Amino acid sequence: MKRVRFLILSLIGILSLGAFGAEDLKTYYENRKAELIPTFEAPRLGSQVTVKIASGHSRTGILMKLSAGSISLMSDTGTTVNYDRAMLHESSRTVFFAEDYAHVKALELTREYKQSLYEDQMAEDLANVHDGEISVSAKPEKSSDKKIETKENENKRTGEINTTRTFTRTDTEVQKLKVSVINKARHPDTFTLKYYFFSERIAKNVKKQKKKKDEAEIQPGTLSIKSQAQKNVTVEARGREWVELASDPFAVVKIELENQSGNITKEPTVSGDENAGWLVILLHGGTVLDAKASHKAYLSDEWIAKYR
Questions:
Q1: Ranges 21-35, 65-79, 239-253: which has the least confidence
Q2: In 3D, which of 241, 231, 135, 124 has the Cα closest to residue 183?
Q3: Which of residues 133 and 219 earns the better pLDDT score?
Q4: What average pLDDT does this structure show over 191-210?
Q5: Which residues have a Cβ under 8 Å from the Cβ of 304 and sit 6 or more positions away?
Q6: Which of 17, 102, 139, 142 has its CA at 20 to 30 Å from residue 264's CA atom?
Q7: Whole-number Å distance between alpha carbons of 294 and 271
Q8: Is the pLDDT score of 127 beyond 70?
Q9: Do the Cβ atoms of 253 and 168 come closer than 8 Å?
Q10: What is the SS3 assignment for 34?
């Protein structure tokens, strides 16, 4: 009865450790045990052996008898002592009895098999986890170029020479982004970065610079896409990769005319496109994992749905 109880408790211990089918592990255990029993080799009769009894004490003697349920040892004094199978410690039972040997070895193999199943399942589960985020730092690079052209015109009526000067100022801006792509999963992964730089046209004959639009007024379709692209980024497990992005140049041209008296003859003409911000989206397989933008409005569901 003790032996049966020991086997049952041992099996319950390994079969209750995980989410795998108990019947599969039980079958694996039984198959391994059946394979191991024929490989068992017991000590030869007449050989000197040491046994450990259940209390923990050890006994040494000559093996005189070995049956399915007990062993007999002859001590140095010539006394023969019988040890029932249940009296022996498990470590000794595995030495003398095929059933115990196969049971312990099969349990070890079943634990290893279960661990490999667990690791395979974990690897499969982890491979299906895609967790990433981005951080973005933005820095515009601005430059300005000024040109002066002088032109002389003769007044046909009076013969006077009129001199006019044209002042042309071109302001150029390139939006630079430094994007940190972080992989939060425990396996390497490849993400897709989609990024957009938006521009807004400037009307001609502008008396003064327009006020910045309120973010609530920014809607998809009201701006133009100055430049856009996407880039695949592979990041190691729990790692980080840096990506540098740049827009096409934004250019605003302002033209003023000045007469020979030094007076501006008419209102300046301004044309070109201004930087209206940017949007960076991190995706995996079409699923949006994170997004960052220069304006909160660009992170609305409407914008993300349009540009994902």
A1: 21-35
A2: 241
A3: 133
A4: 76
A5: 281, 288, 291
A6: 142
A7: 24
A8: no
A9: yes
A10: helix
> How does pLDDT run across 81-116, given as a tens digit for each residue?
999 999 999 999 999 999 999 999 999 999 999 888
Main-chain phi, psi angles of 240, to 5 degrees: -145, 140
183, two tokens: 């992989």
- Would residue 285 be called left, alpha or beta, if left means φ above 0 and alpha means ψ between -120 and 50 degrees? left
DSSP-derived letter for residue 106 is H
| CA nearest to 201, candidates 275, 143, 294 | 275
CA–CA separation, 19 vs 68, rounded Å?
Answer: 37
Distance CA 224, CA 237 (A): 37
Backbone φ and ψ for 286, nearest 5 degrees, come out as 90, -10
Residue carrying structure tokens 């089918």? 21
Global pTM reads 0.57
Q: Is 77 helix (H, G, I), strand (E, B) or coil?
A: coil
Closest CA to 200 of 293, 281, 270: 270
